Amino acid sequence: MKPQFDLSLYLVLDPDLCGGAQGMIDTARAAAANGATMVQLRAPNWKKRQWLETATVLKAVLAPLGVPLIINDQIDVALAMQADGVHIGQADLPPDAARRLLGAGRIIGLSASNAAQLADAPLGLIDYLGVGPVHPTGTKADASPVIGLDLFGDLMAAKPLPVVAIGGIKAGNAAPVIAAGADGVAVVSAICGQPDIPTATRALRREIDGARA
Amino acid sequence: MKPQFDLSLYLVLDPDLCGGAQGMIDTARAAAANGATMVQLRAPNWKKRQWLETATVLKAVLAPLGVPLIINDQIDVALAMQADGVHIGQADLPPDAARRLLGAGRIIGLSASNAAQLADAPLGLIDYLGVGPVHPTGTKADASPVIGLDLFGDLMAAKPLPVVAIGGIKAGNAAPVIAAGADGVAVVSAICGQPDIPTATRALRREIDGARA
Protein backbone atom coordinates (compact mmCIF):
# COMPACT_ATOMS: atom_id res chain seq x y z
CA MET A 1 0.00 0.00 0.00
CA LYS A 2 1.32 3.39 -0.92
CA PRO A 3 1.66 5.59 2.15
CA GLN A 4 -0.63 8.60 2.36
CA PHE A 5 1.34 11.77 1.90
CA ASP A 6 0.79 15.47 2.50
CA LEU A 7 3.01 17.90 0.60
CA SER A 8 2.12 20.92 2.79
CA LEU A 9 5.54 21.50 4.33
CA TYR A 10 8.24 19.40 2.73
CA LEU A 11 11.69 19.65 4.31
CA VAL A 12 14.70 18.89 2.08
CA LEU A 13 17.74 18.07 4.23
CA ASP A 14 21.11 19.39 3.09
CA PRO A 15 24.26 18.17 4.88
CA ASP A 16 26.08 21.50 4.61
CA LEU A 17 23.21 23.67 5.80
CA CYS A 18 22.05 21.24 8.50
CA GLY A 19 25.43 20.52 10.09
CA GLY A 20 26.18 17.05 8.74
CA ALA A 21 24.39 13.77 9.36
CA GLN A 22 23.63 14.36 13.03
CA GLY A 23 22.43 17.89 12.31
CA MET A 24 20.12 16.52 9.63
CA ILE A 25 18.68 13.95 12.03
CA ASP A 26 18.14 16.54 14.78
CA THR A 27 16.61 18.99 12.29
CA ALA A 28 14.28 16.37 10.83
CA ARG A 29 13.09 15.32 14.29
CA ALA A 30 12.37 18.89 15.40
CA ALA A 31 10.71 19.85 12.11
CA ALA A 32 8.54 16.73 11.94
CA ALA A 33 7.36 17.33 15.49
CA ASN A 34 6.37 20.91 14.62
CA GLY A 35 4.50 20.68 11.35
CA ALA A 36 6.76 19.40 8.58
CA THR A 37 4.76 16.80 6.65
CA MET A 38 7.48 15.15 4.55
CA VAL A 39 11.26 14.92 4.72
CA GLN A 40 13.67 14.34 1.84
CA LEU A 41 17.30 13.30 2.23
CA ARG A 42 19.48 14.92 -0.43
CA ALA A 43 23.26 14.59 -0.24
CA PRO A 44 24.69 14.40 -3.76
CA ASN A 45 28.29 14.22 -2.58
CA TRP A 46 27.87 11.39 -0.09
CA LYS A 47 29.00 7.81 -0.58
CA LYS A 48 26.20 5.30 -0.29
CA ARG A 49 27.20 3.74 3.02
CA GLN A 50 26.74 7.18 4.60
CA TRP A 51 23.43 7.50 2.78
CA LEU A 52 22.25 4.14 4.08
CA GLU A 53 23.28 4.77 7.68
CA THR A 54 21.73 8.24 7.86
CA ALA A 55 18.55 7.27 6.01
CA THR A 56 18.06 4.32 8.34
CA VAL A 57 18.21 6.58 11.39
CA LEU A 58 15.95 9.18 9.74
CA LYS A 59 13.34 6.56 8.99
CA ALA A 60 13.36 5.39 12.60
CA VAL A 61 12.95 8.99 13.76
CA LEU A 62 10.21 9.96 11.29
CA ALA A 63 8.05 6.83 11.07
CA PRO A 64 6.58 7.18 14.59
CA LEU A 65 5.62 10.77 13.69
CA GLY A 66 3.85 9.61 10.53
CA VAL A 67 6.16 11.67 8.32
CA PRO A 68 7.34 9.91 5.13
CA LEU A 69 11.05 9.83 4.30
CA ILE A 70 11.87 10.43 0.64
CA ILE A 71 15.31 9.59 -0.81
CA ASN A 72 16.70 11.88 -3.50
CA ASP A 73 17.97 10.04 -6.60
CA GLN A 74 19.50 6.95 -4.91
CA ILE A 75 16.91 4.27 -5.58
CA ASP A 76 19.26 1.53 -4.40
CA VAL A 77 19.55 3.22 -1.02
CA ALA A 78 15.76 3.62 -0.88
CA LEU A 79 15.31 -0.08 -1.60
CA ALA A 80 17.98 -1.13 0.90
CA MET A 81 16.39 0.73 3.84
CA GLN A 82 12.78 0.64 2.60
CA ALA A 83 12.20 4.36 2.34
CA ASP A 84 8.68 5.63 1.82
CA GLY A 85 9.64 6.97 -1.58
CA VAL A 86 12.15 8.64 -3.86
CA HIS A 87 12.45 11.97 -5.60
CA ILE A 88 14.06 12.00 -9.03
CA GLY A 89 15.23 14.79 -11.31
CA GLN A 90 15.13 14.96 -15.08
CA ALA A 91 18.69 13.56 -15.33
CA ASP A 92 18.21 10.77 -12.79
CA LEU A 93 16.86 7.30 -13.54
CA PRO A 94 13.68 7.79 -15.60
CA PRO A 95 10.24 7.39 -13.99
CA ASP A 96 9.48 4.07 -15.69
CA ALA A 97 12.68 2.50 -14.39
CA ALA A 98 12.11 4.00 -10.95
CA ARG A 99 8.57 2.63 -10.74
CA ARG A 100 9.67 -0.80 -11.96
CA LEU A 101 12.38 -0.97 -9.28
CA LEU A 102 10.25 0.44 -6.46
CA GLY A 103 6.92 -1.23 -7.14
CA ALA A 104 3.50 0.31 -6.57
CA GLY A 105 3.86 0.79 -2.83
CA ARG A 106 6.27 3.72 -2.74
CA ILE A 107 5.95 7.43 -3.45
CA ILE A 108 7.78 8.79 -6.50
CA GLY A 109 8.24 12.52 -7.03
CA LEU A 110 9.69 14.12 -10.16
CA SER A 111 11.25 17.55 -10.59
CA ALA A 112 9.88 19.81 -13.33
CA SER A 113 11.17 23.27 -14.17
CA ASN A 114 9.04 24.40 -17.08
CA ALA A 115 5.79 23.86 -18.96
CA ALA A 116 7.24 21.20 -21.26
CA GLN A 117 8.44 19.08 -18.36
CA LEU A 118 5.05 19.43 -16.65
CA ALA A 119 3.28 18.38 -19.84
CA ASP A 120 5.61 15.40 -20.23
CA ALA A 121 5.11 14.14 -16.67
CA PRO A 122 4.21 10.44 -16.85
CA LEU A 123 0.98 10.52 -14.85
CA GLY A 124 0.59 6.82 -14.26
CA LEU A 125 4.11 6.41 -12.93
CA ILE A 126 4.67 9.24 -10.47
CA ASP A 127 2.77 10.62 -7.49
CA TYR A 128 3.72 14.28 -7.30
CA LEU A 129 5.77 16.95 -9.03
CA GLY A 130 8.36 19.23 -7.50
CA VAL A 131 8.16 22.48 -9.45
CA GLY A 132 10.79 25.19 -9.26
CA PRO A 133 12.82 27.15 -8.67
CA VAL A 134 9.95 29.56 -7.99
CA HIS A 135 12.37 32.16 -6.60
CA PRO A 136 16.17 32.45 -6.78
CA THR A 137 17.95 29.98 -4.50
CA GLY A 138 21.50 29.61 -3.32
CA THR A 139 21.03 26.03 -2.12
CA LYS A 140 21.23 24.08 -5.38
CA ALA A 141 24.25 24.74 -7.55
CA ASP A 142 22.74 23.25 -10.73
CA ALA A 143 19.27 24.78 -10.40
CA SER A 144 17.23 25.56 -13.52
CA PRO A 145 16.24 29.15 -14.47
CA VAL A 146 13.90 30.86 -11.99
CA ILE A 147 10.20 30.51 -12.87
CA GLY A 148 8.82 33.47 -10.93
CA LEU A 149 5.49 33.61 -9.14
CA ASP A 150 3.42 34.77 -12.15
CA LEU A 151 4.52 31.97 -14.46
CA PHE A 152 4.30 29.52 -11.56
CA GLY A 153 0.61 30.44 -11.20
CA ASP A 154 0.09 29.86 -14.93
CA LEU A 155 1.71 26.44 -14.65
CA MET A 156 -0.51 25.53 -11.70
CA ALA A 157 -3.64 26.25 -13.74
CA ALA A 158 -2.96 23.04 -15.67
CA LYS A 159 -1.11 20.98 -13.08
CA PRO A 160 -1.58 17.28 -13.81
CA LEU A 161 -0.60 16.02 -10.33
CA PRO A 162 -0.10 17.34 -6.79
CA VAL A 163 2.68 19.91 -6.79
CA VAL A 164 5.20 20.94 -4.17
CA ALA A 165 6.84 24.27 -5.00
CA ILE A 166 10.57 24.70 -4.36
CA GLY A 167 13.22 27.40 -4.63
CA GLY A 168 13.78 30.36 -2.35
CA ILE A 169 10.61 29.78 -0.33
CA LYS A 170 10.62 30.97 3.29
CA ALA A 171 8.38 32.49 5.93
CA GLY A 172 6.83 35.56 4.31
CA ASN A 173 6.68 34.30 0.73
CA ALA A 174 5.10 30.85 1.22
CA ALA A 175 1.48 32.03 1.25
CA PRO A 176 1.47 33.45 -2.32
CA VAL A 177 2.85 30.16 -3.64
CA ILE A 178 0.02 28.22 -2.00
CA ALA A 179 -2.45 30.81 -3.23
CA ALA A 180 -1.05 30.31 -6.75
CA GLY A 181 -2.05 26.65 -6.59
CA ALA A 182 0.78 24.67 -5.01
CA ASP A 183 -0.22 21.82 -2.70
CA GLY A 184 2.75 22.56 -0.50
CA VAL A 185 6.17 24.16 -0.31
CA ALA A 186 9.57 22.53 -0.09
CA VAL A 187 12.25 24.32 1.91
CA VAL A 188 15.88 23.80 2.74
CA SER A 189 17.45 26.88 4.30
CA ALA A 190 14.14 28.14 5.75
CA ILE A 191 14.47 25.29 8.27
CA CYS A 192 17.99 23.77 7.97
CA GLY A 193 20.41 25.92 9.93
CA GLN A 194 17.76 28.12 11.53
CA PRO A 195 18.59 28.91 15.17
CA ASP A 196 15.18 27.74 16.40
CA ILE A 197 13.90 24.87 14.22
CA PRO A 198 10.55 24.36 16.02
CA THR A 199 9.63 28.04 15.81
CA ALA A 200 10.75 28.37 12.18
CA THR A 201 8.77 25.27 11.23
CA ARG A 202 5.62 26.33 13.04
CA ALA A 203 5.72 29.79 11.45
CA LEU A 204 5.98 28.29 7.98
CA ARG A 205 3.22 25.81 8.64
CA ARG A 206 0.93 28.53 10.02
CA GLU A 207 1.50 30.63 6.90
CA ILE A 208 0.74 27.67 4.61
CA ASP A 209 -2.41 26.70 6.47
CA GLY A 210 -3.49 30.33 6.56
CA ALA A 211 -3.11 30.71 2.80
CA ARG A 212 -5.64 27.91 2.32
CA ALA A 213 -8.23 29.15 4.81
CA MET B 1 22.13 -18.53 -12.76
CA LYS B 2 25.22 -16.50 -12.00
CA PRO B 3 27.20 -15.82 -15.18
CA GLN B 4 30.59 -17.48 -15.44
CA PHE B 5 33.33 -14.90 -15.17
CA ASP B 6 37.05 -14.73 -15.88
CA LEU B 7 39.04 -12.00 -14.13
CA SER B 8 42.10 -12.37 -16.41
CA LEU B 9 41.95 -8.96 -18.10
CA TYR B 10 39.40 -6.67 -16.50
CA LEU B 11 38.90 -3.31 -18.19
CA VAL B 12 37.62 -0.43 -16.05
CA LEU B 13 36.15 2.29 -18.25
CA ASP B 14 36.79 5.90 -17.29
CA PRO B 15 34.91 8.69 -19.12
CA ASP B 16 37.82 11.15 -19.05
CA LEU B 17 40.47 8.71 -20.23
CA CYS B 18 38.23 6.98 -22.78
CA GLY B 19 36.80 10.10 -24.43
CA GLY B 20 33.31 10.19 -22.99
CA ALA B 21 30.44 7.76 -23.41
CA GLN B 22 31.05 6.99 -27.09
CA GLY B 23 34.76 6.55 -26.46
CA MET B 24 33.97 4.11 -23.66
CA ILE B 25 31.68 2.09 -25.90
CA ASP B 26 34.22 1.97 -28.72
CA THR B 27 37.00 1.07 -26.30
CA ALA B 28 34.96 -1.69 -24.67
CA ARG B 29 34.07 -3.20 -28.04
CA ALA B 30 37.66 -3.23 -29.25
CA ALA B 31 39.03 -4.53 -25.96
CA ALA B 32 36.42 -7.27 -25.60
CA ALA B 33 37.15 -8.46 -29.13
CA ASN B 34 40.87 -8.66 -28.36
CA GLY B 35 41.13 -10.42 -25.04
CA ALA B 36 39.51 -8.36 -22.30
CA THR B 37 37.44 -10.76 -20.20
CA MET B 38 35.33 -8.33 -18.12
CA VAL B 39 34.35 -4.69 -18.41
CA GLN B 40 33.38 -2.34 -15.59
CA LEU B 41 31.63 1.00 -16.06
CA ARG B 42 32.85 3.55 -13.54
CA ALA B 43 31.77 7.20 -13.84
CA PRO B 44 31.42 8.69 -10.35
CA ASN B 45 30.46 12.15 -11.65
CA TRP B 46 27.72 11.06 -14.01
CA LYS B 47 24.00 11.47 -13.41
CA LYS B 48 22.07 8.21 -13.52
CA ARG B 49 20.25 8.78 -16.79
CA GLN B 50 23.64 8.95 -18.50
CA TRP B 51 24.69 5.83 -16.59
CA LEU B 52 21.60 3.95 -17.72
CA GLU B 53 21.91 4.95 -21.37
CA THR B 54 25.60 4.10 -21.62
CA ALA B 55 25.35 0.88 -19.64
CA THR B 56 22.47 -0.29 -21.83
CA VAL B 57 24.57 0.19 -24.97
CA LEU B 58 27.62 -1.43 -23.35
CA LYS B 59 25.61 -4.50 -22.41
CA ALA B 60 24.34 -4.85 -25.97
CA VAL B 61 27.92 -4.58 -27.28
CA LEU B 62 29.49 -6.96 -24.76
CA ALA B 63 26.87 -9.68 -24.33
CA PRO B 64 27.40 -11.20 -27.80
CA LEU B 65 31.13 -11.39 -27.03
CA GLY B 66 30.45 -13.24 -23.77
CA VAL B 67 32.06 -10.47 -21.71
CA PRO B 68 30.21 -9.55 -18.50
CA LEU B 69 29.42 -5.90 -17.79
CA ILE B 70 29.95 -4.82 -14.19
CA ILE B 71 28.49 -1.57 -12.82
CA ASN B 72 30.53 0.35 -10.27
CA ASP B 73 28.58 1.34 -7.14
CA GLN B 74 25.20 2.17 -8.74
CA ILE B 75 23.11 -0.87 -7.88
CA ASP B 76 19.91 0.84 -9.03
CA VAL B 77 21.41 1.32 -12.49
CA ALA B 78 22.56 -2.31 -12.53
CA LEU B 79 19.04 -3.46 -11.65
CA ALA B 80 17.41 -1.16 -14.19
CA MET B 81 19.46 -2.47 -17.13
CA GLN B 82 20.12 -5.96 -15.78
CA ALA B 83 23.88 -5.78 -15.65
CA ASP B 84 25.85 -8.95 -15.07
CA GLY B 85 27.08 -7.61 -11.76
CA VAL B 86 28.29 -4.74 -9.62
CA HIS B 87 31.54 -3.69 -8.03
CA ILE B 88 31.37 -1.98 -4.64
CA GLY B 89 33.95 -0.21 -2.52
CA GLN B 90 34.24 -0.12 1.24
CA ALA B 91 32.17 3.11 1.43
CA ASP B 92 29.45 1.97 -0.99
CA LEU B 93 26.35 -0.01 -0.06
CA PRO B 94 27.52 -2.94 2.08
CA PRO B 95 27.77 -6.45 0.60
CA ASP B 96 24.73 -7.80 2.45
CA ALA B 97 22.50 -5.02 1.11
CA ALA B 98 23.99 -5.42 -2.37
CA ARG B 99 23.34 -9.16 -2.42
CA ARG B 100 19.80 -8.72 -1.09
CA LEU B 101 19.01 -6.20 -3.85
CA LEU B 102 20.72 -8.11 -6.65
CA GLY B 103 19.78 -11.68 -5.80
CA ALA B 104 21.94 -14.76 -6.31
CA GLY B 105 22.22 -14.45 -10.07
CA ARG B 106 24.61 -11.52 -10.37
CA ILE B 107 28.33 -11.06 -9.79
CA ILE B 108 29.40 -8.88 -6.85
CA GLY B 109 32.98 -7.68 -6.48
CA LEU B 110 34.34 -5.81 -3.48
CA SER B 111 37.41 -3.57 -3.24
CA ALA B 112 39.97 -4.36 -0.54
CA SER B 113 43.12 -2.37 0.13
CA ASN B 114 44.75 -4.11 3.07
CA ALA B 115 44.95 -7.32 5.07
CA ALA B 116 42.11 -6.34 7.42
CA GLN B 117 39.71 -5.71 4.57
CA LEU B 118 40.68 -9.02 2.96
CA ALA B 119 40.11 -10.84 6.25
CA ASP B 120 36.73 -9.14 6.66
CA ALA B 121 35.51 -10.02 3.18
CA PRO B 122 32.06 -11.64 3.54
CA LEU B 123 32.72 -14.85 1.65
CA GLY B 124 29.16 -16.01 1.21
CA LEU B 125 28.01 -12.69 -0.22
CA ILE B 126 30.58 -11.68 -2.80
CA ASP B 127 32.22 -13.37 -5.78
CA TYR B 128 35.60 -11.73 -6.14
CA LEU B 129 37.87 -9.12 -4.58
CA GLY B 130 39.54 -6.19 -6.28
CA VAL B 131 42.82 -5.66 -4.45
CA GLY B 132 44.95 -2.57 -4.82
CA PRO B 133 46.43 -0.20 -5.55
CA VAL B 134 49.33 -2.54 -6.23
CA HIS B 135 51.35 0.29 -7.79
CA PRO B 136 50.87 4.08 -7.76
CA THR B 137 48.03 5.25 -10.00
CA GLY B 138 46.89 8.61 -11.25
CA THR B 139 43.47 7.37 -12.32
CA LYS B 140 41.62 7.30 -8.99
CA ALA B 141 41.72 10.47 -6.94
CA ASP B 142 40.69 8.82 -3.67
CA ALA B 143 42.86 5.72 -3.95
CA SER B 144 44.13 3.98 -0.80
CA PRO B 145 47.86 3.77 0.05
CA VAL B 146 49.93 1.74 -2.41
CA ILE B 147 50.35 -1.92 -1.41
CA GLY B 148 53.45 -2.75 -3.41
CA LEU B 149 54.23 -6.07 -5.10
CA ASP B 150 55.86 -7.73 -2.07
CA LEU B 151 52.98 -7.13 0.31
CA PHE B 152 50.53 -7.95 -2.49
CA GLY B 153 52.17 -11.38 -2.77
CA ASP B 154 51.84 -11.87 1.00
CA LEU B 155 48.15 -10.98 0.80
CA MET B 156 47.63 -13.45 -2.04
CA ALA B 157 49.01 -16.30 0.07
CA ALA B 158 45.80 -16.19 2.12
CA LYS B 159 43.31 -14.89 -0.47
CA PRO B 160 39.81 -16.06 0.41
CA LEU B 161 38.28 -15.49 -3.04
CA PRO B 162 39.36 -14.88 -6.63
CA VAL B 163 41.33 -11.65 -6.84
CA VAL B 164 41.74 -9.08 -9.57
CA ALA B 165 44.69 -6.77 -8.92
CA ILE B 166 44.34 -3.07 -9.69
CA GLY B 167 46.45 0.07 -9.61
CA GLY B 168 49.17 1.14 -12.01
CA ILE B 169 49.18 -2.16 -13.91
CA LYS B 170 50.21 -2.07 -17.57
CA ALA B 171 52.07 -4.06 -20.18
CA GLY B 172 55.44 -4.90 -18.65
CA ASN B 173 54.36 -5.17 -15.01
CA ALA B 174 51.29 -7.41 -15.31
CA ALA B 175 53.16 -10.71 -15.27
CA PRO B 176 54.67 -10.30 -11.77
CA VAL B 177 51.20 -9.54 -10.38
CA ILE B 178 49.83 -12.76 -11.85
CA ALA B 179 52.91 -14.63 -10.63
CA ALA B 180 52.25 -13.23 -7.15
CA GLY B 181 48.86 -14.93 -7.13
CA ALA B 182 46.30 -12.62 -8.73
CA ASP B 183 43.65 -14.27 -10.90
CA GLY B 184 43.70 -11.29 -13.20
CA VAL B 185 44.57 -7.65 -13.57
CA ALA B 186 42.29 -4.64 -13.84
CA VAL B 187 43.43 -1.74 -15.99
CA VAL B 188 42.16 1.68 -16.92
CA SER B 189 44.83 3.76 -18.65
CA ALA B 190 46.68 0.73 -20.04
CA ILE B 191 43.73 0.38 -22.46
CA CYS B 192 41.56 3.54 -22.21
CA GLY B 193 43.09 6.26 -24.35
CA GLN B 194 45.75 4.05 -25.93
CA PRO B 195 46.23 4.87 -29.61
CA ASP B 196 45.74 1.23 -30.69
CA ILE B 197 43.26 -0.49 -28.36
CA PRO B 198 43.37 -3.95 -30.02
CA THR B 199 47.16 -4.11 -29.91
CA ALA B 200 47.37 -2.80 -26.35
CA THR B 201 44.76 -5.32 -25.22
CA ARG B 202 46.38 -8.27 -26.97
CA ALA B 203 49.80 -7.40 -25.53
CA LEU B 204 48.41 -7.33 -22.00
CA ARG B 205 46.50 -10.54 -22.47
CA ARG B 206 49.57 -12.29 -23.87
CA GLU B 207 51.61 -11.19 -20.87
CA ILE B 208 48.93 -12.44 -18.44
CA ASP B 209 48.56 -15.80 -20.16
CA GLY B 210 52.33 -16.14 -20.37
CA ALA B 211 52.74 -15.55 -16.65
CA ARG B 212 50.52 -18.56 -15.95
CA ALA B 213 52.16 -20.92 -18.42
From TrEMBL, chains A, B:
Mg(2+) binds at D73, D92. Belongs to the thiamine-phosphate synthase family. It catalyses: 2-[(2R,5Z)-2-carboxy-4-methylthiazol-5(2H)-ylidene]ethyl phosphate + 4-amino-2-methyl-5-(diphosphooxymethyl)pyrimidine + 2 H(+) = thiamine phosphate + CO2 + diphosphate; 4-methyl-5-(2-phosphooxyethyl)-thiazole + 4-amino-2-methyl-5-(diphosphooxymethyl)pyrimidine + H(+) = thiamine phosphate + diphosphate; 2-(2-carboxy-4-methylthiazol-5-yl)ethyl phosphate + 4-amino-2-methyl-5-(diphosphooxymethyl)pyrimidine + 2 H(+) = thiamine phosphate + CO2 + diphosphate. It comes from Chitiniphilus shinanonensis. The keyword Metal-binding applies. Residues 9-191 form the Thiamine phosphate synthase/TenI domain. It comes from the Bacteria. Its EC number is 2.5.1.3. Condenses 4-methyl-5-(beta-hydroxyethyl)thiazole monophosphate (THZ-P) and 2-methyl-4-amino-5-hydroxymethyl pyrimidine pyrophosphate (HMP-PP) to form thiamine monophosphate (TMP). Its cofactor is Mg(2+). Gene3D superfamilies: Aldolase class I. It is an enzyme of class 2 (transferase). InterPro entries: Aldolase_TIM (IPR013785), ThiamineP_synth_sf (IPR036206), ThiamineP_synth_TenI (IPR022998), TMP_synthase (IPR034291). Binds 1 Mg(2+) ion per subunit. Pathway: Cofactor biosynthesis; thiamine diphosphate biosynthesis; thiamine phosphate from 4-amino-2-methyl-5-diphosphomethylpyrimidine and 4-methyl-5-(2-phosphoethyl)-thiazole: step 1/1. This is Thiamine-phosphate synthase. Keywords: Magnesium, Metal-binding, Thiamine biosynthesis, Transferase. SUPFAM superfamilies: Thiamin phosphate synthase (SSF51391). Pfam families: TMP-TENI.
